[in-house]
Amino acid sequence: MYRLKRKNMVSRLAIMGITNESVLKVMESVPRHLFVPMGLEHQAYDEKALPIGFEQTISHPYTVALMSQAINVEYGQKILEIGTGSGYQTAILCELGAQVFTIERISQIGKNAAKRLSSMKYHFVARIGNGALGWQTYAPFDSIIVTAGAPVIPENLFNQLSMNGKLIIPIGGKEGQILTLYTKHENGYKKIELESLKFVPFIGI
To answer: Measured between alpha carbons, how far is 147 from 106 in angstroms, rounded to an integer?
Structure first.
């Protein structure tokens, strides 16, 4: 049943504009229903965000696919994820071959995600903390994914990008944000606005 649901989800994502074959392939293989609370498994492959507790959500499948596609993950790249949440985006990045470092602000959510991901044999590095500070110990990163809406770019994150590194982050207020891709250059950055979406707020900046 879930295999068919995943296949249908991927077909929908392709229609919605996801063209990266690697992203589509891993999203068809990762069991998203294992990342949602018990009782919501039947909705896991619908195009919707679902609650995971503590006023947090697992993002729409399209949002995860779009963010993963935008940073164009290459095997072995170091990626920092701000907002582990359910761990689903973490799993997608791992499946794409990235070295994933992930930070979650809410202790219980972070612990639950780490336990889930470890049980699924994913290799990652996780901690509980303020994502706005980034993770200087492992910097620089090839890409940074922020899964919460911020009014401005957290300067610490931009500083922890490698040259030509990518930062994808929803920029805007509580009512909605624009998912924005920044590519770091010597004299600043290139900015591309992708789409209007709505994320939970980025706490800590």
So the answer is: 14
Superfamily for 2-197?
A: Vaccinia Virus protein VP39 (3.40.50.150)
**pTM confidence score:** 0.94
Q: Mean of the pLDDT values across residues 31-38? A: 96
Please tell me what DSSP assigns to residue 152.
Answer: S
The half-sphere exposure of 126 on its side-chain side, counting CA atoms within 13 A, is 27
Q: Could you tell me which of 198, 184, 111 has the C-alpha nearest to residue 153? A: 184
Return the domain boundaries, the chain. Answer: 2-197
Token pair recorded at residue 10 = 């991927």
Residues forming the active site: 59
Mean pLDDT, range 118-142, rounded to an integer: 96
d(CA 49, CA 184): 30
Q: Which amino acid is at 152?
A: V
